[in-house]
Amino acid sequence: MSASKGIRGDMTVGSPMRLILAFSIPLLLGNVLQQMYNMVDSIVVGNYVGTTALAAVGTGAPIIYMMVALFMGIGNGAAVIISQYFGAGNLKKVSETVDTIYTTAMIGALPVTLLGIIFSGPLLRLINTPDNAFSDARLYMVIIFIGTIFSLGYNLNSAIMQSLGDSRTPLLLLAIACVLNVVLDLWFVISFRWGVAGVAIATILAQAISWISGIFLINRKYPYIHINLLKFFFDRELFRKIIKLGLPNGLQQMLFSVGTLALQSLVNGYGSDFMAGFSGANKIDMFAFFPAQSFGMALTTYVGQNIGAGKMHRVKEGLRATMVMSVLCGIGAMALVLVYGPNMMRLFSQEAAVIEAGMDYLRPVMYCYLLFAVMNTVLSVLRGAGDMVFPMITSLLSLWIIRLPMAYLLAYFFGKEYLFFSFGAGWLIGMVMAISYYFSGRWKKKAVVSQQVEEELQEKYE
Predict the structure, then answer these.
(1) Which of 211, 248, 306, 326 has a CB 3.0–4.6 Å from the CB of 154, allowing a cystine?
(2) Global pTM value
């Protein structure tokens, strides 16, 4: 019997739908809090500083994500390994994987910080940031990059706990960060009148406090894990496995961010109002996508644990359950955003041009939501199985070959109001590729952890 059986977070026994739903609810609430965390910045800036500042915060965010995406992806690769070792019952390897990825993150944070500060200005120029928003956007980015270590650690803690089947503690930590961010945003922007700088400082302080709290809770909750920022541990073989899984995921996220910047460059060419509308609508559409994304994240952990435990038959059951929940929630989200979208946009700005620009984005994206829901569910199975390469190829192909060229073509021939129909075309191709690959069965051979090997290793520890 594997060592993880009976430990809280085990997803290898019980109803797949119940397990995935129970795991997803804290993730969903966490995603909502995370988006509220980000929305507060935009709402406060848009209402108390101005449309130009709102555009500055919105245009800087994709660049920031691009710079940290590689390490975030590597962290996700480590999470898959942790979930498979946990499913196999090898808690010693779980601890060593956590220590190895933490050491990697601590060392890697410094070059990301320096590169982000140095290249923030040139990258903003590269994506056609208007002069009236440039200085605020650069100031926001520099401050956020100074806090890179807090962001990496904060997200790494969540990935570790979720891979162990715990989605509640990350929700608690996110709630702490969200409340702190709201309070500090209002204090720094309204009382101190620090503008965009106040929003950025509030963000990194909230993440720092949540990160340190997370380390304390992980060490207390999981006796087989001991995170110590002053003591480095590095296992070369584990690192090789982490890179093998995490590098494709990190490159996918990084290149996806570059694609987002290319789209942002197109949007920026239409002025501050269109930029502000796009920024606000991005915050809204994330709420609609959260159910499918949360179910997908839960499914990835579920698949990882069950493959580690050698229970391949449960993977198909989990896929079916997740697909049903994602589609049903997607229909509700589509209806809500399409009907109440203009009212939601008024949270960010009262200007008619900004509201209409936001709806130019939301309408076509929502019409194609179900394509994304299906594609995301299938790709989540592949990631949980340890197959990171095909999801990377699928995502990048749907973005670079389909979505981006179509966006520029639609904008050129029909006007900026139509460019966002390109999202649906990309998701359609991605969905077809994902389903075809799933039925090929090749992903089943990608597991990092062999149950037979792990049982043999476990005997040595017992």
Answers:
(1) 211
(2) 0.73
Contact assessment for residue 85 and residue 225, using Cβ atoms and an 8 Å cutoff: no
- Distance, CA of 333 to chain centre: 19
**Residue 7: what pLDDT?**
52
Burial class (CB in 10 A: 0-12, 13-18, 19+), 415: exposed
Label residue 8 left, alpha or beta by phi (over 0 means left) and psi (-120 to 50 means alpha): beta
Question: Which string of b and e fits 53-66 if b means at least 16 CB within 10 Å?
Answer: bbbbbbbbbbbbbb
Integer Cα distance of 248 and 269 in angstroms: 32
Residue 304 phi/psi, 5° resolution?
A: -60, -45
303 exposed, middle or buried (CB, 10 Å; 0-12, 13-18, 19+)?
buried
* pLDDT value, residue 363: 94
Identify the pLDDT of residue 37.
66
Confidence at residue 342, expressed as pLDDT on a 0 to 100 scale: 93
Closest CA to 153 of 94, 112, 119, 188: 112
Tokens representing residue 256 in the block? 């996806």
Give residue 455's pLDDT: 47
Tokens of 6: 């009976």
- Nearest Cα to Cα of residue 29 among 236, 294, 324: 294
CA distance 151 to 211: 8
| Ranges of residues in the chain whose predicted pLDDT is under 50 | 1-6, 451-462
What are the residues whose beta carbons fall under 8 Å from the beta carbon of 270, sequence distance 6 or more?
416
The answer to whether 353 and 412 have CB atoms below 8 angstroms apart is: no
Q: How far apart are CA 275 and CA 417, in angstroms?
A: 13
51-88 helix and 236-268 helix, angle to the nearest 10 degrees? 160
Who contacts 399 (Cβ-Cβ below 8 Å, separation ≥6)?
A: 255, 256, 259, 426
DSSP for 337-398, written as a single string: HHHHHHHHHTTT---HHHHHHHHHHHHHHHHTHHHHHHHHHHHHHHHHTT--HHHHHHHHII
